[in-house]
UniProtKB/TrEMBL annotation:
This is Phosphoenolpyruvate carboxykinase [GTP]. Its EC number is 4.1.1.32. Residues 257-613 form the Phosphoenolpyruvate carboxykinase C-terminal P-loop domain. GTP binds at residues 284-289, 400, 431, 526-529. Residues 1-25 are annotated as: Disordered. It comes from Kocuria subflava.
């Protein structure tokens, strides 16, 4: 049982007390927790979120009134809104994200750690009175299917109506969830969130309340999350990264499955054979685009199962994967009719909340890369006039669209099958200008885990901090592993051991972002990535060729279907090259990374030695 969030009992407001007396639940633990949080945070009132259309309508209207949301032209974007955050609250804050386990080792060496009791003391001080003058929303939700064998429930308490409306898009929330939690007296993950901006009597609110002091804190041993000070995406929509990755990865470790930062793609070949592929790319490195790919190879069809998070479980020795989310929280810049028409269509269906995009003068939205023509005048994400010669982006580089996944026409019918879909291949990928070839296939499960463990990528605007710096990002999970990274890598290896390496999905490593010597992209990307998908499927079938290199099996240009593609021999060469010199320069980075991890499974240090050996031949 989780630690009580409050030490000193304080009176509740009459309205909050009334709302507790009339609570629409009989779940004792929930009632106790909601009371404790209310006593600590002192909200003006309590709202039990039912997830209804009427509730969405009244909350969005309230937010329009308050200036938090701008209603878009309903002809263009029905039932859609734009929000603009505080300029200092635009991305995940990895430095302020903590994994609090009893020992530092259980969280280390990649996570920020604090002692759970001490952290709770600090947080109680921050949460004390933090909801004064605000409504406290109680949001029952489930990640994955409500009819799953073992539904993964959570309840988010938040003082942000933006969070309530966004959670309604991203997860299954509300009365049906609460009913089933009551009926089964279900366990749920406590997800406590406050923007940390109490209102004194008569004080005027701001459009985007938040607090300069931010804490995104996980207690994996209690299965609890406390998030303070931010209203932004992954910091505040606690079902997403905090629960479905950080807490779920810890649960998955205990229960023998995997919670991963992966999209899920369904591919049907010209002979009507179907495969499911999961792909892990770091934040803002192409998951949503790959999940919604429009294949350019004739006869191939792609459908989406998920775009960000995968839960991989085993039935017998076969891996099955589910998408625990119900929405898309996609990077806006770069999403356009030429790059991702499927996302554009999903957005145009309405019911979308945009955050930090630019506004057009006729009630629409715009961001860099949305259209080839740049509008002559916009209101930028900070509310300033913008023209093409302003010399700054109109939309924030990490601006987002939040849209129900059901609006994607290319959604696979089985996307929410509680049993998941059988997984044929796992693809790792990152954003690298050099070194890493367009695609390689691992030599086997252990080598595949090595490829994942040493995945590297240039940092992006999805997290606060420098952009474009190469860092190691194991399985694209560096910011999301809810426990010790070495144990996490061992867990991957153990699954191969337990289920048999031959039964595990085949592992591939891709890089859409390699450059030619003149600085351009060597590979056109987006829909053309279907050519790589074709090769991956054919390798799974055992029918495609390739050449064994030091880093894995890489296609020769003639092994890829390049029909109809305008690409020069130099470009395809640059995309596919495995250059021993570049890789020899890469080795110290891999060795430093393993040294930093400190306690890497021996299998992986052997893999590193094997790579070094192969390179020096
Ligand atoms: P998160 O939601 O942060 O996890 O990001 P994501 O991994 O879903 O990335 P997304 O698909 O939103 O793409 C991020 C950026 O990469 C966008 O600006 C895209 O336009 C760009 N991008 C995606 N795929 C490709 C590609 O194949 N080639 C190139 N050059 N850019 C791409
Ligand atoms: C990511 O950063 O990987 C995202 C966006 O998908 S957020 O929800 O903010 O984490
Ligand atoms: Mn993501």
């Amino acid at each position: 049982m989780a630690q009580k969030p409050t030490d000193t009992t304080q009176e509740l407001s009459a309205e909050a007390q009334k709302s507790l007396d009339q609570a629409p639940t009989t779940h004792q633990r929930l009632l106790t927790w909601v009371r404790e949080v209310a006593e600590l945070t002192q909200p003006e009132s309590i709202h039990w979120v039912d997830g209804s259309e009427a509730e969405w309508k009244s909350l969005t209207e309230e937010m329009v009134e308050a200036g938090t949301l701008v209603r878009l032209d309903p002809e263009k974007f029905p039932n859609s809104f734009a929000a603009f955050s505080d300029p200092d609250d635009v991305a995940r804050v990895e430095e302020r994200t903590f994994i609090c386990t009893k020992t530092a080792k259980a969280a280390g060496p990649t996570n920020n750690w604090e002692d759970p009791q001490e952290m709770k003391e600090i947080l109680r001080d921050h949460f004390r009175g933090s909801m004064r003058g605000r409504t406290m929303y109680v949001i029952p939700f489930v990640m994955g299917h409500l009819d799953a064998d073992d539904p993964k429930y959570g309840v988010e308490i938040s003082d942000s109506p933006y969070v309530v409306c966004s959670m309604r898009i991203m997860a299954t929330i509300g009365a049906d969830v609460l009913k089933k939690m009551d009926d089964t007296n279900a366990f749920f993950v406590e997800c406590l969130h406050s923007v940390g901006a109490p209102l004194e009597p008569g004080q005027q609110d701001v459009a985007w309340p938040c607090n300069p002091s931010k804490y995104i804190v996980h207690f994996p041993e209690d299965r609890a999350i406390w998030s303070f000070g931010s209203g932004y995406g992954g910091n505040a929509l606690l079902g997403k990264k905090c629960y479905a990755l950080r807490i779920a990865s810890a649960i998955a470790h205990d229960e023998g499955w995997l919670a991963e930062h992966m999209l899920i793609l369904k591919v049907t070949d010209p002979d009507n054979a179907t495969k499911y592929i999961a792909a892990a790319f770091p934040s803002a490195c192409g998951k949503t685009n790959f999940a919604m790919i429009e294949p350019t190879v004739p006869g191939w069809k792609a459908e989406m199962v998920g775009d960000d998070i995968s839960w991989i479980r085993f039935r017998g020795d076969q891996a099955y994967v589910t998408n625990p989310e119900a929405g898309l929280f996609g990077v806006a810049p770069g999403t356009g009719w030429s790059t991702n028409p499927n996302a554009m269509k999903a957005i145009a269906a309405g019911n979308t909340i945009f955050t930090n995009v630019a506004l057009t003068d006729d009630g629409g939205v715009w961001w860099e890369g949305m259209t080839d023509d740049v509008p002559e005048h916009l209101t930028d994400w900070k509310g300033n006039d913008w023209t093409p010669d302003s010399g700054r982006p109109a939309a924030h580089p990490n601006s987002r669209f939040c849209t129900p996944i059901k609006q994607a026409e290319i959604l696979a019918a089985e996307y929410d099958d509680p049993n998941g879909v059988p997984l044929s291949a796992i693809v790792f990928g990152g954003r690298r200008k050099t070194t890493v070839p367009l695609v390689s296939e691992s030599f086997g499960w252990e080598h595949g885990v090595f490829q994942g463990a040493t995945l590297s990528s240039e940092t992006t605007a999805a997290a606060k901090g420098a952009v474009g710096v190469v860092r190691r990002d194991p399985m694209a999970m560096l910011p999301f592993i809810g426990y010790n990274a070495n144990e996490y890598l061992q867990h991957w290896l153990d699954l191969g051991e337990n289920h048999g390496a031959e039964n595990m999905p085949k592992v591939f490593y891709v890089n859409w972002f390699r450059r030619t010597p003149d600085g351009g992209f060597a590979w056109p990307g987006f829909g053309e990535n279907s050519r790589v998908v074709e090769w991956i499927c054919r390798r799974v079938d055992g029918t495609a060729g390739g050449v064994e290199t030091a880093v894995g099996v890489v296609p020769n240009p003639e092994d890829l279907n390049l029909e109809g593609l305008e690409i020069t021999p130099e470009e395809i060469q640059a995309a596919l090259a495995v250059d021993a010199e570049e890789w020899l320069e890469e080795l110290p980075g891999i060795e430093d990374w393993f040294a930093k991890l400190g306690d890497v499974p021996e299998v992986l240090t052997e893999q590193a030695a094997g790579l070094k050996d192969r390179l020096s031949k």
